[in-house]
Amino acid sequence: MKKLAMVVTLSILSFISFGQKVKEKNVPQVIKTALHQKYSNAKEIKWDKEENNYEASFDINGVDNSVLFSQDGKIVETEVEIQINQLPKNALDYLNVNFKNARIKEAAKIINLKGKIIFEAEIKTYDILFDEKGGFISKNKV
Predict the structure, then answer these.
(1) pTM confidence score
(2) CA 89, CA 69: separation in Å to the nearest integer?
(3) Confidence band (pLDDT; 50, 70, 90) for 32?
(4) DSSP bridge pairs for 64
(5) Beta-strand pair 75-82/63-69
(6) Which domains does the chain have, with CATH numbers?
(7) Are 114 and 107 in contact (CB under 8 A)?
(8) CB neighbours of 72 closer than 8 A, spacing ≥ 6?
(9) Residue-wise over 36-66: b if at least 16 C-beta within 10 A, else e?
């Protein structure tokens, strides 16, 4: 289990740390088509390149979303903003104990290619990651 948590954490960190802004005209058409087929109502799309993948960040009905696509247009990972009270109870308990007076800036639900769910809470300058049941995975500097 610790190995799995470490692999997931390192994957997320590698995606986060190597992102570069990309103009839409430089995004392969297969990826833009995949995005619009799956999220036809996406608004204000911003693109980043993360290693060999492309990330689309956008808004749907006032909710922040992002989708990471492989070069062939397949979804690698999705992330959707959630309400703080939608974090698992164990995650909220952990945050209340370890960050007593800190404000949670935002929360998200991340689903990877294999359907594994990770929750993220942003506090101060950290992203704190939790597994599907709210078990602590890691604390990463933003």
Answers:
(1) 0.80
(2) 31
(3) very high
(4) 59
(5) antiparallel
(6) 2-141 (3.10.450.360)
(7) no
(8) 30
(9) eeebeebeebebbebeebbbbbbeeeeeebb
**Residue 132 identity (one-letter amino acid):** E
pLDDT digits (tens, 9 = 90+) for 108-119: 999 999 999 999
Contact 118, 129 (CB under 8 A): yes
Extract the tokens encoding 20. 């570069």
What is each CA distance from 47 to 12, 14, 60, 94, 133, in whole angstroms?
17, 17, 16, 33, 31
User: Which residues have C-beta within 8 Å of that of residue 61, sequence separation ≥ 6?
Assistant: 41
Residue 119's DSSP bridge partners are 109, 130
Other CB atoms within 10 Å distance of the CB of residue 85: 9
